[in-house]
Amino acid sequence: MSYIAPSADVAEKAVLGEGTKVWHLAQVREDAVLGENCIVGRGAYVGTGVTIGDNTKIQNYALVYEPAALGRGVFIGPAVVLTNDTYPRAVSPDGSLKSAHDWTPVGVTIEDGASVGARAVCIAPLTIGRWATIAAGSVVTKDVPAFALMAGVPARRLGWVGKAGFPLKEEGGVWVCPETGAKYLEETNSLNETSLTEADTNTAEDNA
Predict the structure, then answer these.
(1) Please, which residues have CB within 8 angstroms of residue 104's CB and are 6 or more apart in sequence?
(2) Spans of all domains in the chain
(3) Can you tell me the distance from the alpha carbon of 137 to that of 152, in angstroms, rounded to the nearest whole number?
(4) How do residues 182-197 score in pLDDT, each as one tens digit?
(5) Less crowded by CB within 10 Å, the N or C end of the chain?
(6) Model pTM?
(7) What stretches of the chain show up as alpha helix (H) in DSSP?
């Protein structure tokens, strides 16, 4: 069963998967759907209709505004912000207060396994590819390829990371994880997992 802290505010129409925990002062809005074994940390906000896959962690005071869509195993660091308004204004040109009907929200999509570091801001609309890592304090303004290591304001790709989160090292045309030994191939500014053997790697080095 799921757990909701007494001080948390979870809408009756929100759906929480088995084993999901919502902690102190967090808010989960109407029609949000959280998968199994998710964690919503202290003071975090999950907007109306947001979808979150299994085993995802949303750390303290992160703001996940609708219509964000998070995959499985996503990590959202403390105080991260996923925006939803490309041209924000409190009032219309005539000075009248804008309502929810005066603009169309756009969302951030984060694919399986990706991580967004503390206090990073992701400016919708954009997609962060699977297993990518966004460094703490970055401002992401455009789509991020899978396995990319992004940092800065605006964020730029500094390299590649593997599924374990460690920066990859290039060895003879093949990107290798120093932690697990997993190998990846770069093709047209994207990275793909490979099942290269040691012999294949040696051949790649000979042809490099």
Answers:
(1) none
(2) 3-97+104-161, 164-208
(3) 7
(4) 999 998 889 998 875 4
(5) N
(6) 0.91
(7) 198-207
